[in-house]
Amino acid sequence: MKKEDCFYLGKIVKKFSFKGELLAKLDTDEPELYENLDAIFIDLRGNLVPFFIESSQLHKSDLLRLKFEDVDTEADADTLIKSDLYLPLDLLPKLEGNKFYYHEVIGFKITDSNFGEVGIIKAINDSTAQALFEIDRDGTEILIPMNNEFIVKVDKQKKTIEVSTPEGLIDLYL
Q1: pTM to 2 decimals?
Q2: Residue 81 has what pLDDT?
Q3: Residue 106 is part of a domain; what is its CATH number?
Q4: Which of 57, 62, 90, 107 has a CA-to-CA distance to 119 between 20 and 30 Å?
């Protein structure tokens, strides 16, 4: 399994017991969706390795307590701390309406209700306080905040997103 075929689910943050149980911090608004997994991929030195789950349960709402097969001691568990967790993309829950996953909209065309066709989404920058669409317009980069008030319509079939940005925002880049 390759990383590009998976989505980041979270990170193992600490040991839970002396029997090899671990706690994982999940990067999701709905941790309960991932409570009954059979297996998960763990990033070990750049390789995704499948681990089978003996038992799992939510712990203090945003942590998932995991017991993996063949991880039975504190020493076994220590080797997995700070490891990233991944699942195949087809396990992502489907999103309705104007909701989308960042990876889904790369390559979508963006149009603005005031400006017209803006360009193609080449990336999502989520390293800032506000996530941004990184749009390529014939070699010029345009950044538009991913603000719910700006997003008018997401059409996954046509691979388009319609936005309504404040007057002059896009012109700043041109």
Answers
A1: 0.70
A2: 95
A3: 2.30.30.240
A4: 90
